[in-house]
Amino acid sequence: MTTFLLWLLLFVLCWPLALLALLVYPLVWLLLLPFRLLGIAVGGVFEFLHALLTLPARMLRRVA
What we know:
Blueprint: H1 2-13, H2 15-63
């Protein structure tokens, strides 16, 4: 909602720039999508390594 209100303010102040931003936003989103997917994959790998490294401690905690 805040983004939309800021866009409306930009539209009132400088409508050509607001329309350009409206057209460029999907292209920027598409360009950044691989980096977002890479970040998700790297985060998953770190979560897996954390779970793998803390597994012995969690297993010992359940036994005791």
